[in-house]
Amino acid sequence: MNLIIKLLITAVAVVVLAKGLPGVEVAGFTSAVILAIVLAFLDAIIKPILVILTLPITILTLGLFLLVINACIILLADKFMGGFNVSGFWVALLFSLLLSFLESVLYSLLDKDKR
Prior knowledge:
Phage_holin_4_2; 5 helices; transmembrane helix; globular; Phage holin family protein; transmembrane; mainly alpha; membrane; two-stranded antiparallel ribbon
């Protein structure tokens, strides 16, 4: 149940960001839910592999290269999905930063409600 709620929160965050951020398009809420599932899959499977492969450059940049990996995950999701479009790398980087921030705020609000 918690996973479903987190996926729905991510979908809402994607829709909000797509409305306000030029260069990001989502076809509808259904596409946003599918995107949340795709992002969860990519974060669970592909991202750890990329982190391990790029560990030297991540250490050299004091962890800032992880932002590039997040943008690459967003661009991969763009390639896998038809109802989601990101116009370029910098937009994907900004989208991933804003999505992470918005998700953390929404998850913290959800956690406060449980207490």
